[in-house]
Design brief:
The protein is built from eleven helices and 18 strands. The protein is an alpha/beta fold and 416 residues long.
Length: 416
């Protein structure tokens, strides 16, 4: 069923009893052309674009829990393409363009809100760095505006402009950035992929990877063995675990990234705002709560909860930027497991096994990359060649010395 104003009206007349399930609950088949491990945003987007753009229809997406239970539902919903380096900027701009047409593409309201992303700067050196970043963005076709202090004050008068340690001198604004409802992204891609014949199999954990020589032949799961022509791993913070089933050791570490939401408030933050003197970012949801976050917890973990030291660190940075935050209550927090690479940039590549493909290492950037990651991973699987905007995301770049060191946000605490 296609969603529209007419379908809402007609179903209302029938007491809303004719709505179809958004996706099927199929039993796994013995064999698929492509098996994608991971039913999060990237895995579902990969299946959707494989089916729609590249014509591969015999696909299964295997999710060990319920659909969207991982990082796709555990993030701060920010989308942007304000990157500097050649390896990253074209990729994230491609992703932002896909976000702009996503709802019409898969016929689902993902609540894409291009409210603007503002990065504050606090010194002359930081201003010069943002000027360089903005110029790089403009050269790649993205939008960027460098604002002075008065411009920022008119937009966000509640910021602390006179803090002796962190005086706000201006900011870099990308008006096309914003937020998207994270759960709706998973639901929309799942519904679209299902409509194209993709089998989305929930509660199906992969426990082993079968090989004959150097080729993968299938996966062992809690629902039996499933054969495949190609196997794609897209398991976010558990990438090293799933890759180890095939004998791979990845250059990633798994860390918890916490996010928080406050009590509901009247609208006052119209944009996404990031603190330039510390790692803090905040936006306001449609329900009024402030959604915010900061650094990863500085130790390896697979737990979806963080420590109080990081909570304190995030709250301190928030109050330093917006003193009024000290008077509101934080309602809840949650943790997502992210796989951190040594240079802070992702991996989309074939492995040394000819039919095993890897999408991993997204650090802080996984959600905003969802459409482009899915498209580029699908391109790699279908054509055995990288997409032109993802050629730098090779797995062997760490051994070759071709790092994409966007901001030094690797897995080690001293790199943050």
């Amino acid at each position: 069923m296609r969603y529209s104003a007419l379908s809402i009206f007609l179903n209302a007349l029938s007491g809303n009893r004719r709505w179809q399930p958004a996706w099927r609950e199929p039993a796994p088949k013995p064999h698929y052309d492509v098996v994608i491990v991971g039913g999060g945003g990237h895995g579902l987007a990969t299946a959707y674009y494989l089916a729609k753009v590249f014509g591969v229809r015999n696909i299964a997406v295997l999710e060990k829990s319920y659909l969207g239970s991982g990082n796709i539902g555990r993030n701060t919903t920010i989308i942007r393409s304000n990157y500097l380096l050649e390896g990253n900027q074209p990729f994230y701009e491609f992703s932002l363009k896909l976000w702009e047409g996503l709802e019409q593409d898969f016929n689902f309201n993902a609540m894409v809100s291009q409210r603007g992303v503002l990065n504050l700067y606090h010194s002359d050196a930081q201003r010069d760095a943002y000027t360089r970043r903005g110029n790089a963005m403009l050269l790649s076709g993205a939008d960027a505006e460098l604002l002075d202090r008065d411009d920022v004050r008119r937009m966000l008068p509640f910021l602390d402009f006179t803090n002796a340690r962190f005086p706000i001198r201006g900011g870099l604004l990308q008006r096309r950035g914003g937020t998207v409802r994270h759960d709706a992204v998973a639901w929309g891609y799942a519904r679209g992929a299902d409509a194209l014949g993709v089998d989305i199999i929930q509660h199906c954990e992969v426990t082993g990877i079968r090989r004959e020589g150097d080729r993968v032949t299938g996966v062992d799961t809690t629902r039996g063995m499933i054969g495949c022509g190609k196997l794609a791993l897209s398991t976010a913070g558990h990438s090293s675990v799933t890759a180890s089933l095939a004998g791979l050791r990845l250059p990633v570490e798994s860390h918890v990234l916490q996010a928080f939401v406050s009590e509901g408030l009247k609208p006052f933050i119209d944009n996404v705002v990031t603190f330039g003197a510390g790692h803090f970012y905040v936006s306001q949801s449609d329900k009024g709560g402030l959604v915010f976050g900061g650094d990863i917890d500085g130790y390896n973990s697979y737990a979806r909860r963080g420590n109080l030291a990081t909570v304190e660190h995030v709250m301190e940075a928030g109050v330093a930027m917006i003193p009024g935050l000290s008077r509101i209550r934080a309602l809840r927090s949650w943790g997502g497991i992210v796989d951190m690479t040594m240079d802070g940039s992702p991996i989309i590549d074939k492995t040394h096994l000819p039919n095993l493909y890897l999408n991993a290492g997204w650090n802080y950037g996984g959600f905003k990359a969802t459409p482009a990651a899915g498209w580029c991973f699908a391109h790699l699987i279908a054509r055995d060649a990288p997409h032109e905007v993802a050629t730098a995301y090779r797995l062997d770049r760490f051994a070759r010395g071709y790092l994409i060191d966007e901001r030094g946000a690797g897995a080690q605490a001293n790199l943050h």
